[in-house]
Amino acid sequence: MPNQTLQTSLVIADIHLQPNQPQHPINQTFLRFLQQKAIHAQRLYILGDLFEVWLGDDIGLQQYPTEIQALKALSDSGIELYLQYGNRDFLMRKHFQQTSGVRLLPDEYTLQIGAQEILMLHGDQLCTGDIAYQKMRRIFRNPVIQWLFLHLPKSRRIKIGEKMRQESMQAGKDKNAEIMDITEDALQKLLERHPGCATVIHGHTHKPAQHTHHFNGHDYRRYVLSDWRPATQYLSLNADGIRIHEFE
Is the C or the N end of the chain the one with fewer CB within 10 Å? Predict the structure, then answer.
Protein backbone atom coordinates (compact mmCIF):
# COMPACT_ATOMS: atom_id res chain seq x y z
CA MET A 1 0.00 0.00 0.00
CA PRO A 2 1.15 3.57 -0.61
CA ASN A 3 2.45 5.71 2.21
CA GLN A 4 -0.79 7.34 3.31
CA THR A 5 1.04 10.02 5.31
CA LEU A 6 2.64 11.34 2.11
CA GLN A 7 -0.58 12.02 0.16
CA THR A 8 1.53 12.90 -2.87
CA SER A 9 0.58 12.79 -6.53
CA LEU A 10 3.21 12.43 -9.25
CA VAL A 11 2.80 13.85 -12.76
CA ILE A 12 4.60 12.81 -15.95
CA ALA A 13 4.03 13.07 -19.71
CA ASP A 14 5.53 12.27 -23.08
CA ILE A 15 7.38 9.09 -22.16
CA HIS A 16 6.83 7.70 -25.68
CA LEU A 17 7.29 4.03 -24.75
CA GLN A 18 8.60 2.10 -27.73
CA PRO A 19 6.43 -0.78 -29.05
CA ASN A 20 7.79 -4.33 -28.73
CA GLN A 21 10.98 -3.04 -27.08
CA PRO A 22 10.80 -3.68 -23.31
CA GLN A 23 14.61 -3.41 -23.11
CA HIS A 24 14.69 0.04 -24.74
CA PRO A 25 16.31 2.58 -22.37
CA ILE A 26 13.12 4.68 -22.19
CA ASN A 27 10.96 1.64 -21.43
CA GLN A 28 13.42 0.47 -18.78
CA THR A 29 13.56 3.92 -17.19
CA PHE A 30 9.76 4.02 -17.01
CA LEU A 31 9.61 0.60 -15.37
CA ARG A 32 12.18 1.68 -12.78
CA PHE A 33 10.23 4.88 -12.16
CA LEU A 34 7.10 2.86 -11.38
CA GLN A 35 9.01 0.55 -9.05
CA GLN A 36 11.10 3.19 -7.26
CA LYS A 37 9.03 6.40 -7.25
CA ALA A 38 5.40 5.87 -8.18
CA ILE A 39 5.03 3.03 -5.68
CA HIS A 40 5.47 5.56 -2.85
CA ALA A 41 2.86 8.02 -4.15
CA GLN A 42 -0.89 8.05 -3.73
CA ARG A 43 -1.63 8.81 -7.38
CA LEU A 44 0.18 8.91 -10.71
CA TYR A 45 -1.06 11.20 -13.47
CA ILE A 46 0.21 10.64 -17.02
CA LEU A 47 -0.64 13.61 -19.24
CA GLY A 48 -0.57 12.00 -22.64
CA ASP A 49 1.84 10.26 -25.02
CA LEU A 50 2.74 7.49 -22.62
CA PHE A 51 3.03 5.31 -25.72
CA GLU A 52 4.77 6.15 -28.96
CA VAL A 53 1.72 4.80 -30.76
CA TRP A 54 -1.52 3.05 -29.80
CA LEU A 55 -3.48 1.59 -32.71
CA GLY A 56 -6.29 0.00 -30.73
CA ASP A 57 -6.42 -2.16 -27.60
CA ASP A 58 -6.05 -5.37 -29.59
CA ILE A 59 -2.70 -4.18 -30.97
CA GLY A 60 -1.44 -2.04 -28.10
CA LEU A 61 -1.85 -4.69 -25.43
CA GLN A 62 0.30 -7.01 -27.56
CA GLN A 63 2.97 -4.37 -28.24
CA TYR A 64 3.44 -3.26 -24.62
CA PRO A 65 2.76 -6.35 -22.44
CA THR A 66 5.61 -5.71 -19.98
CA GLU A 67 4.65 -2.10 -19.40
CA ILE A 68 0.93 -2.91 -19.09
CA GLN A 69 1.70 -5.62 -16.55
CA ALA A 70 3.81 -3.17 -14.52
CA LEU A 71 0.97 -0.63 -14.50
CA LYS A 72 -1.49 -3.27 -13.37
CA ALA A 73 0.82 -4.40 -10.56
CA LEU A 74 1.07 -0.78 -9.39
CA SER A 75 -2.70 -0.36 -9.53
CA ASP A 76 -3.23 -3.61 -7.63
CA SER A 77 -0.89 -2.35 -4.90
CA GLY A 78 -3.28 0.53 -4.24
CA ILE A 79 -1.81 3.34 -6.33
CA GLU A 80 -4.37 5.30 -8.35
CA LEU A 81 -3.37 5.63 -12.00
CA TYR A 82 -4.81 8.25 -14.35
CA LEU A 83 -4.10 8.93 -18.00
CA GLN A 84 -5.00 11.61 -20.54
CA TYR A 85 -4.88 11.06 -24.26
CA GLY A 86 -1.87 12.45 -26.11
CA ASN A 87 -1.48 13.26 -29.76
CA ARG A 88 0.05 9.82 -30.42
CA ASP A 89 -2.04 7.60 -28.15
CA PHE A 90 -5.73 8.47 -28.11
CA LEU A 91 -7.29 5.14 -29.05
CA MET A 92 -7.23 3.41 -25.67
CA ARG A 93 -10.57 1.93 -24.72
CA LYS A 94 -12.17 -0.24 -22.01
CA HIS A 95 -9.95 -3.27 -22.53
CA PHE A 96 -6.87 -1.13 -21.93
CA GLN A 97 -8.36 0.23 -18.72
CA GLN A 98 -9.35 -3.20 -17.46
CA THR A 99 -5.97 -4.76 -18.27
CA SER A 100 -3.77 -1.94 -16.96
CA GLY A 101 -5.80 -0.61 -14.03
CA VAL A 102 -5.48 2.88 -15.50
CA ARG A 103 -8.43 5.28 -15.53
CA LEU A 104 -8.84 7.66 -18.46
CA LEU A 105 -9.30 11.38 -17.83
CA PRO A 106 -10.93 14.08 -19.97
CA ASP A 107 -8.70 16.32 -22.10
CA GLU A 108 -8.95 19.11 -19.50
CA TYR A 109 -8.89 17.89 -15.91
CA THR A 110 -8.95 19.95 -12.72
CA LEU A 111 -7.43 18.69 -9.49
CA GLN A 112 -7.75 20.17 -6.01
CA ILE A 113 -4.51 20.05 -4.00
CA GLY A 114 -4.85 21.86 -0.68
CA ALA A 115 -6.03 25.36 -1.50
CA GLN A 116 -4.88 25.09 -5.11
CA GLU A 117 -7.02 24.15 -8.07
CA ILE A 118 -4.73 22.77 -10.77
CA LEU A 119 -5.61 22.28 -14.43
CA MET A 120 -3.91 19.40 -16.26
CA LEU A 121 -3.92 18.65 -19.99
CA HIS A 122 -1.68 17.14 -22.65
CA GLY A 123 -1.14 20.54 -24.25
CA ASP A 124 -1.43 19.97 -28.00
CA GLN A 125 -4.79 21.77 -28.09
CA LEU A 126 -2.96 24.96 -27.07
CA CYS A 127 -0.63 24.92 -30.10
CA THR A 128 -3.09 26.82 -32.26
CA GLY A 129 -0.38 28.45 -34.35
CA ASP A 130 0.10 25.12 -36.08
CA ILE A 131 -3.03 25.31 -38.21
CA ALA A 132 -2.30 22.14 -40.19
CA TYR A 133 -1.86 20.13 -37.01
CA GLN A 134 -5.07 21.44 -35.44
CA LYS A 135 -7.00 20.50 -38.57
CA MET A 136 -5.52 16.99 -38.44
CA ARG A 137 -6.30 16.76 -34.72
CA ARG A 138 -9.97 17.55 -35.30
CA ILE A 139 -10.15 14.81 -37.92
CA PHE A 140 -8.41 12.17 -35.80
CA ARG A 141 -10.48 12.99 -32.72
CA ASN A 142 -13.74 12.56 -34.65
CA PRO A 143 -15.52 9.53 -33.14
CA VAL A 144 -16.68 8.33 -36.57
CA ILE A 145 -13.13 8.41 -37.98
CA GLN A 146 -11.86 6.56 -34.92
CA TRP A 147 -14.57 3.90 -35.20
CA LEU A 148 -13.72 3.33 -38.85
CA PHE A 149 -10.00 3.10 -38.12
CA LEU A 150 -10.44 0.66 -35.24
CA HIS A 151 -12.44 -1.65 -37.49
CA LEU A 152 -9.67 -1.93 -40.06
CA PRO A 153 -7.57 -5.14 -40.07
CA LYS A 154 -4.59 -5.10 -37.69
CA SER A 155 -2.06 -5.23 -40.50
CA ARG A 156 -3.63 -2.22 -42.18
CA ARG A 157 -3.65 -0.19 -38.95
CA ILE A 158 0.01 -1.01 -38.27
CA LYS A 159 1.01 0.18 -41.75
CA ILE A 160 -0.98 3.38 -41.36
CA GLY A 161 0.49 3.97 -37.91
CA GLU A 162 4.07 3.56 -39.14
CA LYS A 163 3.46 5.92 -42.05
CA MET A 164 1.96 8.53 -39.74
CA ARG A 165 4.91 8.29 -37.35
CA GLN A 166 7.35 8.91 -40.19
CA GLU A 167 5.32 11.82 -41.54
CA SER A 168 5.04 13.33 -38.06
CA MET A 169 8.80 13.15 -37.53
CA GLN A 170 9.44 14.79 -40.88
CA ALA A 171 6.85 17.49 -40.24
CA GLY A 172 8.49 18.29 -36.92
CA LYS A 173 11.81 18.86 -38.69
CA ASP A 174 10.27 21.07 -41.37
CA LYS A 175 8.16 23.32 -39.15
CA ASN A 176 9.28 26.43 -37.33
CA ALA A 177 9.66 25.56 -33.64
CA GLU A 178 7.65 28.61 -32.63
CA ILE A 179 4.41 27.47 -34.26
CA MET A 180 4.66 24.13 -32.45
CA ASP A 181 4.57 25.87 -29.07
CA ILE A 182 1.45 27.06 -27.26
CA THR A 183 -0.10 30.44 -28.01
CA GLU A 184 -0.98 33.02 -25.37
CA ASP A 185 -4.44 33.38 -26.89
CA ALA A 186 -5.20 29.67 -26.53
CA LEU A 187 -3.91 29.67 -22.96
CA GLN A 188 -6.04 32.66 -22.03
CA LYS A 189 -9.17 31.03 -23.47
CA LEU A 190 -8.36 27.83 -21.57
CA LEU A 191 -8.07 29.72 -18.28
CA GLU A 192 -11.32 31.55 -18.97
CA ARG A 193 -13.03 28.16 -19.22
CA HIS A 194 -11.60 27.25 -15.81
CA PRO A 195 -11.83 30.46 -13.76
CA GLY A 196 -10.83 28.80 -10.48
CA CYS A 197 -7.48 27.53 -11.73
CA ALA A 198 -4.31 29.57 -11.28
CA THR A 199 -1.92 26.73 -12.15
CA VAL A 200 -1.64 24.78 -15.42
CA ILE A 201 0.42 21.63 -16.00
CA HIS A 202 0.92 20.20 -19.49
CA GLY A 203 3.34 18.37 -21.72
CA HIS A 204 3.49 17.89 -25.51
CA THR A 205 5.94 20.67 -26.42
CA HIS A 206 8.99 18.86 -24.97
CA LYS A 207 10.19 22.19 -23.55
CA PRO A 208 10.33 21.68 -19.76
CA ALA A 209 10.07 25.00 -17.94
CA GLN A 210 8.11 27.12 -15.49
CA HIS A 211 6.27 30.15 -16.83
CA THR A 212 4.26 32.98 -15.32
CA HIS A 213 1.40 34.67 -17.16
CA HIS A 214 -0.78 37.67 -16.39
CA PHE A 215 -4.31 37.81 -17.78
CA ASN A 216 -7.18 40.09 -16.77
CA GLY A 217 -5.51 41.21 -13.58
CA HIS A 218 -4.59 37.70 -12.40
CA ASP A 219 -1.28 35.83 -12.25
CA TYR A 220 -0.99 32.24 -13.43
CA ARG A 221 1.72 29.61 -13.26
CA ARG A 222 2.37 27.12 -16.03
CA TYR A 223 4.53 24.02 -15.69
CA VAL A 224 5.70 22.26 -18.86
CA LEU A 225 6.69 18.64 -18.36
CA SER A 226 9.84 16.99 -19.67
CA ASP A 227 9.74 14.32 -22.38
CA TRP A 228 12.53 12.26 -20.66
CA ARG A 229 14.95 12.81 -23.54
CA PRO A 230 17.35 13.31 -21.86
CA ALA A 231 15.99 15.00 -18.71
CA THR A 232 13.80 12.53 -16.82
CA GLN A 233 11.80 15.10 -14.88
CA TYR A 234 8.55 14.64 -13.03
CA LEU A 235 6.39 16.74 -10.72
CA SER A 236 5.18 15.98 -7.23
CA LEU A 237 2.01 17.61 -5.94
CA ASN A 238 0.90 17.81 -2.32
CA ALA A 239 -0.38 20.32 0.21
CA ASP A 240 3.12 21.83 0.43
CA GLY A 241 3.06 22.76 -3.25
CA ILE A 242 4.49 21.65 -6.59
CA ARG A 243 8.06 20.44 -6.91
CA ILE A 244 10.18 19.44 -9.90
CA HIS A 245 12.32 16.30 -9.55
CA GLU A 246 14.93 14.53 -11.62
CA PHE A 247 14.84 10.76 -11.91
CA GLU A 248 18.25 9.34 -12.76
Answer: C
What's the one-letter identity of residue 99?
T
**108 φ, ψ (degrees, to nearest 5):** -125, 115
- Confirm if 236 and 9 have CB atoms less than 8 A apart: yes
Reported as a pLDDT band with limits 50, 70 and 90, residue 5 is very low
Per residue in 173-203, pLDDT (tens digit) is 666 767 889 999 999 999 999 998 999 999 9
How large a percentage of the chain has pLDDT more than 90? 81
Burial label for 68, CB within 10 Å (0-12, 13-18, 19+), is: buried
Beta bridge partners of 49: none
How many CB atoms are closer than 10 A to CB 201?
23
Beta-carbon contacts of 186 under 8 Å, excluding residues fewer than 6 positions away, are 125, 126, 127, 128
**Rounded alpha-carbon distances, angstroms, from residue 45 to 28, 109, 110, 203:** 19, 11, 12, 12
Cα 137 to chain centroid, rounded? 16
Contacts of 19 (CB under 8 A, 6+ apart): 51, 52, 53, 63, 64
